[in-house]
Amino acid sequence: MTRRKRQLGFLLQFLSHRYLKVMLYANGPRMLECPCSRSCRRSVSLKCTLIATIGLLLYSLFLYYPSQSIVEKNFDRIYFYFKNVTPLRTLVESDKSFHGHFYISSSIPAILPSKHYHVHEVANSKQLEKRDNINDLSTNNNVYKSKIIYEYISSRDKNNVKFPLTAFDSLYSIQNGDICMGTNNLVLLAMVHSSAKYFQRRHSIRNTWGNINMFKKFDVRIVFLLGLPDDRSTQIQIDEESSKYGDIVQGDFLDTYRNLTNKAVLGLRWIFEFCPHAKRIVKVDDDVFVNIFTLLDNVLNVFPSDHRMIRCFHAKPGSAPILRKGTKWNVESDVFPVYKTWPMNFCYGFFVLETPDVIHELYQAAMTTPFLWLDDVYVFGLLAEAIGGITFSKLNVAYLEGHRALKCFTESKCHSLTAFARNDKLMNNLLSGVVKNYGELVKNLTGSLSLFL
User: Fold this and answer.
1) Residue 201 CA to chain centroid, in angstroms?
2) What angle do CA 345, 348, 350 make, to 5 degrees?
3) pLDDT tens digits, residue range 91-106?
4) 313 φ/ψ angles, rounded to the nearest 5 degrees
Protein backbone atom coordinates (compact mmCIF):
# COMPACT_ATOMS: atom_id res chain seq x y z
CA MET A 1 0.00 0.00 0.00
CA THR A 2 2.87 2.37 0.81
CA ARG A 3 4.33 1.82 -2.65
CA ARG A 4 1.03 2.60 -4.32
CA LYS A 5 0.65 5.77 -2.26
CA ARG A 6 4.12 6.83 -3.33
CA GLN A 7 3.29 6.09 -6.96
CA LEU A 8 0.06 8.06 -6.65
CA GLY A 9 2.02 10.93 -5.19
CA PHE A 10 4.39 10.94 -8.14
CA LEU A 11 1.40 10.80 -10.46
CA LEU A 12 -0.33 13.80 -8.91
CA GLN A 13 2.93 15.70 -8.71
CA PHE A 14 3.54 15.43 -12.44
CA LEU A 15 -0.08 15.93 -13.38
CA SER A 16 0.09 19.31 -11.66
CA HIS A 17 2.84 20.35 -14.07
CA ARG A 18 1.66 23.37 -16.05
CA TYR A 19 2.89 22.10 -19.37
CA LEU A 20 1.46 18.61 -19.37
CA LYS A 21 0.35 17.24 -22.71
CA VAL A 22 -1.31 13.84 -22.96
CA MET A 23 -1.71 12.19 -26.34
CA LEU A 24 -3.76 9.04 -26.74
CA TYR A 25 -3.82 7.04 -29.96
CA ALA A 26 -6.39 4.36 -30.64
CA ASN A 27 -6.60 2.90 -34.12
CA GLY A 28 -5.52 6.24 -35.51
CA PRO A 29 -4.64 9.63 -34.01
CA ARG A 30 -6.94 10.92 -31.33
CA MET A 31 -5.57 13.65 -29.14
CA LEU A 32 -6.56 15.04 -25.79
CA GLU A 33 -4.32 18.04 -25.39
CA CYS A 34 -4.01 20.31 -22.38
CA PRO A 35 -2.86 23.74 -23.51
CA CYS A 36 -1.97 24.75 -19.97
CA SER A 37 0.11 27.73 -20.97
CA ARG A 38 0.54 30.97 -19.12
CA SER A 39 -2.13 32.58 -21.27
CA CYS A 40 -4.72 30.07 -20.17
CA ARG A 41 -7.10 30.87 -17.39
CA ARG A 42 -6.83 29.01 -14.15
CA SER A 43 -10.18 27.30 -14.71
CA VAL A 44 -8.98 25.91 -18.03
CA SER A 45 -5.79 24.56 -16.49
CA LEU A 46 -7.71 23.00 -13.63
CA LYS A 47 -10.18 21.36 -16.00
CA CYS A 48 -7.35 20.03 -18.12
CA THR A 49 -5.51 18.60 -15.12
CA LEU A 50 -8.65 16.93 -13.77
CA ILE A 51 -9.42 15.30 -17.11
CA ALA A 52 -5.84 14.06 -17.48
CA THR A 53 -5.78 12.81 -13.86
CA ILE A 54 -8.95 10.77 -14.27
CA GLY A 55 -7.78 9.32 -17.55
CA LEU A 56 -4.39 8.29 -16.25
CA LEU A 57 -5.77 6.82 -13.04
CA LEU A 58 -8.17 4.69 -15.09
CA TYR A 59 -5.30 3.59 -17.32
CA SER A 60 -3.20 2.73 -14.24
CA LEU A 61 -6.09 0.65 -12.92
CA PHE A 62 -6.33 -1.22 -16.22
CA LEU A 63 -2.62 -1.96 -16.14
CA TYR A 64 -2.84 -3.39 -12.64
CA TYR A 65 -5.54 -5.74 -13.93
CA PRO A 66 -4.42 -6.46 -17.52
CA SER A 67 -6.82 -9.35 -18.05
CA GLN A 68 -9.66 -6.82 -17.85
CA SER A 69 -7.88 -4.18 -19.88
CA ILE A 70 -9.56 -3.04 -23.04
CA VAL A 71 -7.45 0.08 -23.09
CA GLU A 72 -4.18 -1.88 -23.08
CA LYS A 73 -5.33 -4.11 -25.92
CA ASN A 74 -6.47 -1.31 -28.22
CA PHE A 75 -4.34 1.74 -27.64
CA ASP A 76 -1.40 1.64 -30.00
CA ARG A 77 0.54 4.50 -28.45
CA ILE A 78 0.59 6.46 -25.25
CA TYR A 79 2.97 9.38 -25.01
CA PHE A 80 3.72 11.63 -22.09
CA TYR A 81 5.50 14.83 -22.99
CA PHE A 82 6.72 17.48 -20.60
CA LYS A 83 7.99 20.91 -21.61
CA ASN A 84 11.77 20.99 -21.99
CA VAL A 85 12.00 17.22 -21.51
CA THR A 86 13.04 15.20 -24.55
CA PRO A 87 11.43 11.73 -24.64
CA LEU A 88 13.95 8.92 -24.15
CA ARG A 89 12.48 6.90 -27.00
CA THR A 90 10.79 8.00 -30.20
CA LEU A 91 8.64 6.21 -32.71
CA VAL A 92 8.31 6.43 -36.45
CA GLU A 93 4.81 7.75 -36.94
CA SER A 94 4.11 5.53 -39.94
CA ASP A 95 4.94 2.33 -38.06
CA LYS A 96 1.66 0.66 -37.05
CA SER A 97 3.19 -2.37 -35.33
CA PHE A 98 3.49 -0.92 -31.85
CA HIS A 99 0.94 -2.18 -29.38
CA GLY A 100 0.10 -1.46 -25.79
CA HIS A 101 3.47 0.02 -24.86
CA PHE A 102 4.36 2.90 -22.59
CA TYR A 103 6.94 5.47 -23.71
CA ILE A 104 8.13 7.95 -21.16
CA SER A 105 11.05 10.25 -20.46
CA SER A 106 13.83 8.86 -18.31
CA SER A 107 13.37 11.82 -15.94
CA ILE A 108 9.88 10.66 -15.00
CA PRO A 109 9.60 8.10 -12.18
CA ALA A 110 7.95 4.74 -12.70
CA ILE A 111 4.30 5.40 -12.03
CA LEU A 112 2.94 2.20 -13.52
CA PRO A 113 4.00 -1.44 -12.97
CA SER A 114 7.38 -2.11 -14.55
CA LYS A 115 6.18 -5.31 -16.24
CA HIS A 116 4.22 -3.14 -18.65
CA TYR A 117 7.24 -1.16 -19.87
CA HIS A 118 7.50 -3.13 -23.08
CA VAL A 119 9.44 -1.69 -25.99
CA HIS A 120 8.78 -3.12 -29.41
CA GLU A 121 11.53 -2.93 -32.02
CA VAL A 122 13.20 -0.23 -29.93
CA ALA A 123 16.24 -0.76 -27.74
CA ASN A 124 15.51 -1.75 -24.16
CA SER A 125 18.24 -1.60 -21.52
CA LYS A 126 19.96 -4.75 -22.79
CA GLN A 127 19.57 -3.65 -26.39
CA LEU A 128 20.99 -0.23 -25.56
CA GLU A 129 24.11 -1.97 -24.29
CA LYS A 130 24.34 -3.72 -27.63
CA ARG A 131 23.90 -0.42 -29.44
CA ASP A 132 26.63 1.24 -27.37
CA ASN A 133 29.03 -1.41 -28.62
CA ILE A 134 27.83 -1.50 -32.19
CA ASN A 135 30.51 0.86 -33.45
CA ASP A 136 33.22 -1.34 -31.95
CA LEU A 137 31.63 -4.45 -33.44
CA SER A 138 31.17 -2.99 -36.88
CA THR A 139 34.75 -1.77 -37.09
CA ASN A 140 36.28 -5.03 -35.94
CA ASN A 141 36.00 -7.55 -38.73
CA ASN A 142 37.41 -10.31 -36.51
CA VAL A 143 34.23 -10.38 -34.43
CA TYR A 144 32.27 -12.02 -37.25
CA LYS A 145 32.80 -15.32 -38.98
CA SER A 146 31.23 -13.90 -42.12
CA LYS A 147 32.21 -10.94 -44.25
CA ILE A 148 28.56 -10.61 -45.25
CA ILE A 149 27.46 -10.10 -41.66
CA TYR A 150 30.26 -7.60 -41.16
CA GLU A 151 29.00 -5.65 -44.19
CA TYR A 152 25.41 -5.86 -42.93
CA ILE A 153 26.35 -4.53 -39.47
CA SER A 154 28.57 -1.83 -40.93
CA SER A 155 25.90 -0.55 -43.29
CA ARG A 156 23.14 -0.12 -40.70
CA ASP A 157 22.38 3.25 -39.16
CA LYS A 158 24.46 3.31 -35.97
CA ASN A 159 22.04 5.72 -34.28
CA ASN A 160 19.01 3.55 -34.86
CA VAL A 161 20.18 -0.03 -34.35
CA LYS A 162 17.35 -2.37 -33.33
CA PHE A 163 17.26 -6.00 -32.30
CA PRO A 164 14.36 -8.45 -32.10
CA LEU A 165 12.38 -7.70 -28.98
CA THR A 166 11.78 -11.39 -28.28
CA ALA A 167 15.51 -12.14 -28.15
CA PHE A 168 15.73 -10.33 -24.81
CA ASP A 169 12.44 -9.96 -22.98
CA SER A 170 10.26 -12.83 -21.80
CA LEU A 171 7.25 -11.95 -23.91
CA TYR A 172 4.93 -14.94 -23.66
CA SER A 173 1.28 -14.07 -23.41
CA ILE A 174 0.50 -17.83 -23.59
CA GLN A 175 3.39 -20.20 -22.97
CA ASN A 176 2.17 -23.84 -22.85
CA GLY A 177 5.66 -25.00 -21.91
CA ASP A 178 4.56 -28.59 -21.30
CA ILE A 179 3.72 -29.46 -24.92
CA CYS A 180 6.87 -31.53 -25.43
CA MET A 181 6.94 -33.11 -21.98
CA GLY A 182 6.36 -36.80 -21.38
CA THR A 183 8.12 -38.15 -24.45
CA ASN A 184 11.59 -39.50 -25.10
CA ASN A 185 10.98 -40.23 -28.78
CA LEU A 186 9.84 -36.91 -30.21
CA VAL A 187 10.54 -37.39 -33.90
CA LEU A 188 9.08 -34.14 -35.15
CA LEU A 189 7.98 -30.78 -33.77
CA ALA A 190 5.83 -28.78 -36.21
CA MET A 191 5.82 -25.07 -35.40
CA VAL A 192 3.03 -23.43 -37.36
CA HIS A 193 3.30 -19.66 -37.72
CA SER A 194 -0.32 -18.57 -37.63
CA SER A 195 -2.16 -15.26 -37.67
CA ALA A 196 -4.18 -14.68 -34.52
CA LYS A 197 -7.51 -14.43 -36.34
CA TYR A 198 -7.19 -17.63 -38.42
CA PHE A 199 -9.02 -20.04 -36.11
CA GLN A 200 -10.40 -22.11 -38.99
CA ARG A 201 -6.97 -22.74 -40.50
CA ARG A 202 -5.66 -24.04 -37.20
CA HIS A 203 -8.73 -26.23 -36.84
CA SER A 204 -8.19 -27.65 -40.34
CA ILE A 205 -4.55 -28.49 -39.60
CA ARG A 206 -5.47 -30.25 -36.34
CA ASN A 207 -7.99 -32.39 -38.19
CA THR A 208 -5.75 -33.29 -41.14
CA TRP A 209 -1.97 -33.44 -41.38
CA GLY A 210 -1.44 -32.00 -37.89
CA ASN A 211 -3.47 -34.66 -36.06
CA ILE A 212 -0.76 -35.90 -33.68
CA ASN A 213 -2.97 -38.74 -32.42
CA MET A 214 -2.50 -40.63 -35.70
CA PHE A 215 0.95 -41.88 -34.71
CA LYS A 216 1.41 -44.67 -32.16
CA LYS A 217 5.03 -45.82 -32.60
CA PHE A 218 6.61 -42.39 -32.03
CA ASP A 219 5.61 -38.91 -31.00
CA VAL A 220 4.84 -35.82 -33.03
CA ARG A 221 3.96 -32.45 -31.52
CA ILE A 222 2.42 -29.35 -33.07
CA VAL A 223 2.59 -25.75 -31.87
CA PHE A 224 0.73 -22.75 -33.25
CA LEU A 225 2.75 -19.56 -32.83
CA LEU A 226 0.71 -16.34 -32.60
CA GLY A 227 0.98 -12.70 -31.68
CA LEU A 228 -1.69 -10.56 -30.05
CA PRO A 229 -4.88 -9.63 -31.91
CA ASP A 230 -6.06 -6.04 -32.04
CA ASP A 231 -9.35 -6.65 -30.24
CA ARG A 232 -10.37 -8.15 -26.93
CA SER A 233 -13.01 -10.56 -28.27
CA THR A 234 -10.48 -12.35 -30.49
CA GLN A 235 -8.12 -12.72 -27.54
CA ILE A 236 -10.88 -14.31 -25.48
CA GLN A 237 -11.41 -16.86 -28.26
CA ILE A 238 -7.67 -17.57 -28.40
CA ASP A 239 -7.60 -18.13 -24.62
CA GLU A 240 -10.45 -20.62 -24.99
CA GLU A 241 -8.69 -22.32 -27.91
CA SER A 242 -5.51 -22.67 -25.86
CA SER A 243 -7.44 -24.11 -22.90
CA LYS A 244 -9.11 -26.66 -25.17
CA TYR A 245 -6.15 -27.83 -27.25
CA GLY A 246 -3.06 -26.75 -25.27
CA ASP A 247 -1.04 -26.13 -28.44
CA ILE A 248 -0.95 -22.31 -28.60
CA VAL A 249 2.17 -20.25 -27.94
CA GLN A 250 1.47 -16.53 -28.05
CA GLY A 251 3.90 -13.66 -27.93
CA ASP A 252 3.18 -10.37 -26.21
CA PHE A 253 3.37 -8.25 -29.36
CA LEU A 254 0.84 -7.25 -31.97
CA ASP A 255 0.32 -9.88 -34.66
CA THR A 256 1.26 -7.84 -37.72
CA TYR A 257 3.25 -8.43 -40.87
CA ARG A 258 6.10 -6.28 -39.61
CA ASN A 259 6.32 -8.38 -36.45
CA LEU A 260 7.02 -11.68 -38.22
CA THR A 261 10.70 -11.57 -37.24
CA ASN A 262 9.79 -11.07 -33.58
CA LYS A 263 7.46 -14.05 -33.91
CA ALA A 264 10.15 -16.20 -35.56
CA VAL A 265 12.75 -15.40 -32.90
CA LEU A 266 10.22 -16.16 -30.16
CA GLY A 267 9.68 -19.53 -31.84
CA LEU A 268 13.41 -20.27 -31.72
CA ARG A 269 13.48 -19.26 -28.09
CA TRP A 270 10.49 -21.43 -27.16
CA ILE A 271 12.01 -24.50 -28.84
CA PHE A 272 15.30 -23.96 -27.03
CA GLU A 273 13.58 -23.47 -23.67
CA PHE A 274 10.85 -26.10 -23.83
CA CYS A 275 11.48 -28.59 -26.65
CA PRO A 276 15.24 -29.04 -27.23
CA HIS A 277 14.95 -32.84 -27.51
CA ALA A 278 12.90 -32.85 -30.74
CA LYS A 279 14.80 -34.73 -33.44
CA ARG A 280 13.57 -32.42 -36.20
CA ILE A 281 11.78 -29.08 -36.29
CA VAL A 282 9.61 -28.01 -39.19
CA LYS A 283 8.57 -24.39 -39.50
CA VAL A 284 5.43 -24.07 -41.61
CA ASP A 285 2.84 -21.42 -42.37
CA ASP A 286 -0.83 -21.91 -41.50
CA ASP A 287 -1.97 -21.91 -45.13
CA VAL A 288 0.19 -24.91 -46.05
CA PHE A 289 -0.80 -28.57 -46.31
CA VAL A 290 1.99 -31.02 -45.52
CA ASN A 291 2.32 -34.62 -46.65
CA ILE A 292 3.22 -35.56 -43.09
CA PHE A 293 3.72 -39.24 -43.95
CA THR A 294 6.39 -38.68 -46.59
CA LEU A 295 7.99 -36.07 -44.35
CA LEU A 296 8.24 -38.52 -41.44
CA ASP A 297 9.53 -41.24 -43.74
CA ASN A 298 12.27 -38.86 -44.86
CA VAL A 299 13.14 -37.89 -41.31
CA LEU A 300 13.27 -41.51 -40.13
CA ASN A 301 14.79 -43.24 -43.13
CA VAL A 302 16.13 -40.93 -45.83
CA PHE A 303 18.14 -38.38 -43.88
CA PRO A 304 18.24 -39.53 -40.26
CA SER A 305 21.88 -38.49 -39.73
CA ASP A 306 21.57 -34.85 -40.77
CA HIS A 307 23.77 -32.49 -38.79
CA ARG A 308 23.57 -28.68 -38.83
CA MET A 309 21.23 -28.93 -41.77
CA ILE A 310 18.40 -26.71 -43.06
CA ARG A 311 16.23 -28.16 -45.83
CA CYS A 312 13.85 -25.85 -47.64
CA PHE A 313 12.91 -24.07 -50.84
CA HIS A 314 16.36 -22.57 -51.09
CA ALA A 315 17.49 -19.20 -52.48
CA LYS A 316 21.18 -19.20 -53.35
CA PRO A 317 23.39 -16.11 -52.97
CA GLY A 318 22.70 -13.59 -55.72
CA SER A 319 19.48 -15.28 -56.90
CA ALA A 320 16.83 -13.19 -55.11
CA PRO A 321 16.51 -9.42 -55.62
CA ILE A 322 16.53 -6.95 -52.73
CA LEU A 323 13.29 -5.00 -53.15
CA ARG A 324 13.51 -1.38 -52.07
CA LYS A 325 10.30 0.18 -53.38
CA GLY A 326 6.97 -0.66 -54.95
CA THR A 327 6.10 -3.83 -52.98
CA LYS A 328 5.13 -4.87 -49.48
CA TRP A 329 8.54 -6.55 -49.09
CA ASN A 330 10.52 -3.32 -49.27
CA VAL A 331 13.61 -3.01 -47.06
CA GLU A 332 15.41 0.04 -45.71
CA SER A 333 17.99 1.81 -47.84
CA ASP A 334 20.79 1.02 -45.38
CA VAL A 335 20.34 -2.75 -45.78
CA PHE A 336 23.16 -3.93 -48.07
CA PRO A 337 23.04 -0.61 -49.97
CA VAL A 338 25.56 -1.67 -52.63
CA TYR A 339 23.82 -4.97 -53.39
CA LYS A 340 20.93 -5.59 -55.77
CA THR A 341 20.45 -9.23 -54.65
CA TRP A 342 20.72 -10.96 -51.29
CA PRO A 343 24.37 -12.03 -50.91
CA MET A 344 23.73 -15.06 -48.68
CA ASN A 345 21.72 -18.28 -48.66
CA PHE A 346 18.23 -18.13 -47.21
CA CYS A 347 14.98 -20.09 -47.24
CA TYR A 348 11.51 -19.19 -48.36
CA GLY A 349 9.86 -19.81 -45.05
CA PHE A 350 6.53 -21.43 -45.88
CA PHE A 351 8.18 -24.80 -45.11
CA VAL A 352 11.61 -25.25 -43.50
CA LEU A 353 13.01 -28.41 -41.92
CA GLU A 354 15.78 -27.88 -39.36
CA THR A 355 18.01 -30.05 -37.21
CA PRO A 356 17.82 -29.15 -33.52
CA ASP A 357 21.55 -28.42 -33.19
CA VAL A 358 21.14 -25.04 -34.92
CA ILE A 359 18.17 -23.69 -32.93
CA HIS A 360 20.01 -22.36 -29.90
CA GLU A 361 22.74 -20.77 -31.99
CA LEU A 362 20.20 -19.06 -34.25
CA TYR A 363 18.43 -17.69 -31.19
CA GLN A 364 21.67 -16.43 -29.66
CA ALA A 365 22.70 -14.82 -32.95
CA ALA A 366 19.51 -12.72 -32.86
CA MET A 367 20.93 -10.90 -29.83
CA THR A 368 23.78 -9.43 -31.87
CA THR A 369 22.35 -9.25 -35.39
CA PRO A 370 20.39 -6.05 -36.11
CA PHE A 371 16.71 -6.43 -36.81
CA LEU A 372 15.33 -6.99 -40.31
CA TRP A 373 11.58 -7.33 -40.59
CA LEU A 374 11.70 -9.94 -43.40
CA ASP A 375 11.66 -13.02 -41.19
CA ASP A 376 12.75 -15.54 -43.84
CA VAL A 377 15.79 -13.49 -44.79
CA TYR A 378 16.60 -12.62 -41.19
CA VAL A 379 16.36 -16.07 -39.56
CA PHE A 380 17.40 -18.41 -42.37
CA GLY A 381 19.69 -15.91 -44.05
CA LEU A 382 21.39 -13.45 -41.71
CA LEU A 383 21.30 -15.54 -38.53
CA ALA A 384 22.37 -18.70 -40.35
CA GLU A 385 25.20 -16.75 -42.00
CA ALA A 386 26.21 -15.28 -38.63
CA ILE A 387 26.69 -18.65 -36.90
CA GLY A 388 28.20 -20.38 -39.93
CA GLY A 389 28.69 -24.07 -40.58
CA ILE A 390 25.11 -24.70 -41.77
CA THR A 391 24.39 -26.78 -44.85
CA PHE A 392 21.41 -25.80 -46.98
CA SER A 393 19.68 -28.52 -48.95
CA LYS A 394 16.73 -28.38 -51.32
CA LEU A 395 13.48 -30.07 -50.37
CA ASN A 396 10.78 -31.20 -52.76
CA VAL A 397 8.37 -28.39 -51.96
CA ALA A 398 6.56 -26.39 -54.61
CA TYR A 399 4.16 -23.47 -54.92
CA LEU A 400 1.11 -25.62 -55.64
CA GLU A 401 -2.38 -24.34 -54.91
CA GLY A 402 -5.96 -24.80 -55.94
CA HIS A 403 -6.59 -27.13 -58.88
CA ARG A 404 -2.89 -27.83 -59.46
CA ALA A 405 -2.44 -28.93 -55.86
CA LEU A 406 -5.54 -31.13 -55.93
CA LYS A 407 -4.48 -32.76 -59.18
CA CYS A 408 -0.95 -33.48 -57.94
CA PHE A 409 -2.00 -35.02 -54.64
CA THR A 410 -5.08 -36.96 -55.73
CA GLU A 411 -4.07 -38.37 -59.12
CA SER A 412 -0.62 -39.66 -58.27
CA LYS A 413 2.20 -39.61 -55.77
CA CYS A 414 2.85 -35.88 -55.78
CA HIS A 415 6.49 -34.83 -56.05
CA SER A 416 5.93 -32.00 -53.56
CA LEU A 417 5.74 -32.33 -49.78
CA THR A 418 3.51 -29.29 -49.57
CA ALA A 419 0.67 -27.38 -51.15
CA PHE A 420 -1.12 -24.17 -50.25
CA ALA A 421 -4.58 -24.81 -48.83
CA ARG A 422 -6.66 -22.10 -47.20
CA ASN A 423 -9.93 -23.91 -46.54
CA ASP A 424 -11.21 -27.10 -44.91
CA LYS A 425 -12.42 -28.75 -48.10
CA LEU A 426 -9.07 -28.51 -49.88
CA MET A 427 -7.18 -29.66 -46.78
CA ASN A 428 -9.40 -32.74 -46.44
CA ASN A 429 -9.20 -33.58 -50.15
CA LEU A 430 -5.42 -33.33 -50.14
CA LEU A 431 -5.20 -35.65 -47.12
CA SER A 432 -7.54 -38.14 -48.81
CA GLY A 433 -5.35 -38.10 -51.90
CA VAL A 434 -2.22 -38.77 -49.84
CA VAL A 435 -3.87 -41.70 -48.01
CA LYS A 436 -5.03 -43.19 -51.32
CA ASN A 437 -1.67 -42.92 -53.07
CA TYR A 438 0.57 -43.67 -50.08
CA GLY A 439 -1.60 -46.33 -48.40
CA GLU A 440 1.20 -48.69 -47.42
CA LEU A 441 3.37 -45.92 -45.97
CA VAL A 442 0.41 -44.45 -44.09
CA LYS A 443 -0.41 -47.85 -42.62
CA ASN A 444 3.20 -48.41 -41.52
CA LEU A 445 3.33 -45.06 -39.74
CA THR A 446 -0.14 -45.03 -38.17
CA GLY A 447 -0.83 -48.77 -37.76
CA SER A 448 -4.17 -48.69 -39.60
CA LEU A 449 -6.00 -47.02 -42.44
CA SER A 450 -9.28 -47.17 -40.55
CA LEU A 451 -8.53 -43.73 -39.09
CA PHE A 452 -9.14 -42.19 -42.50
CA LEU A 453 -12.31 -44.03 -43.52
Assistant:
1) 18
2) 150
3) 222 333 333 333 222 2
4) -75, 105
Compute CA 412 distance to the chain's CA centroid, rounded to the nearest angstrom. Answer: 37
8-state DSSP, 76: E
Domains and CATH numbers, the chain: 2-117 (no CATH), 126-158 (no CATH), 166-452 (3.90.550)
Half-sphere exposure of 266 (CA within 13 A, CB side): 29
| Strand ranges (E), 355-451 | 391-394, 418-420
Contact 312, 392 (CB under 8 A): yes
Question: Which of the given ranges, 60-74, 169-183, 193-207, has the highest pLDDT on average?
Answer: 193-207
Q: Cα–Cα distance between 344 and 382 in angstroms, integer? A: 8
Work out whether the CA dihedral 259, 265, 271, 273 comes out positive or negative. negative
β-bridge mates for residue 341, sequence order? 321
Q: Cα–Cα distance between 3 and 47 in angstroms, integer?
A: 28
- Other CB atoms within a 10 A radius of the CB of residue 49 amount to 18
Contact 440, 294 (CB under 8 A): no
Q: What is the SS3 assignment for 320?
A: coil
Q: Is 218 helix (H, G, I), strand (E, B) or coil?
A: coil
Estimate to the nearest angstrom the gap between the alpha carbon of 366 and the chain centroid: 13
Higher per-residue pLDDT: 60 or 178:
178
Q: What's the pTM value of the predicted model, to 2 decimals?
A: 0.71
